[in-house]
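Aim 2 progress update. The chain analyzed this quarter is reproduced below.
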Amino acid sequence: MKMPRFFWVALISTVVIADGCKKQADAREKDHTSGIRVEPQMQPDGPPTVLFDINPVPAPSADTHLYECTYQARGQTARFRLSYKQTSPIAGEFPVGSAEGSFLAVSGSENSILLEDLKKALDAKEFPRKVSRIRELPFNAAILGEHQSRDASGGYSNRPKGDWTLLKLFLPKGGDDGEVFLNINPVMGKAEFSIKDSDYGNYVLEQLAKVI
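Predicted structure tokens:
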């Protein structure tokens, strides 16, 4: 069976996942409660990420994860929903699984501050203009790790086991014009966007602006 292009791109990328998934650790691991002010921060050895709150809600099927997402910063609250489901298990010499999902728009979202912070985190060069809102933004995803924990340097490891799931999203669904990391921790009630490559910054920011 011929595998989709995004699957092979993801498979190759897992070889360098430690470099691509550098994250902030110490300060953000203390953010166990919802409703706090969360903004991107710069680590000396890595780019900023955008951390936001997630709250699980009933999904249409047992194999689907559905979250209400909020980002509060500088007096604004952005709201959107995240839905995804795994479509193949993690397997192979360089273990990777696949998934598919969508970002879903929520009315009344105040997104300008979130977009400003995403622009920095994704190293986008331009702020999206004349964006038309859409109800849903579908994506494909590679599952790069499950039950991950953060180490002292801010990277991820499965020893000891933790509660993070590491995804790499491909936009649009069925293509790979844009890529971005999305890491999810339902136990903490947190998720984060992290840069894959600055070349994707403008495209990813423009697409996310349609729904967040």
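The beta strands are 50-56, 64-73, 76-91, 96-105, 136-150, 156-157, 164-171, 178-185, 190-195. The chain has one domain: 5-208. These observations will guide the mutagenesis experiments scheduled for the next reporting period.
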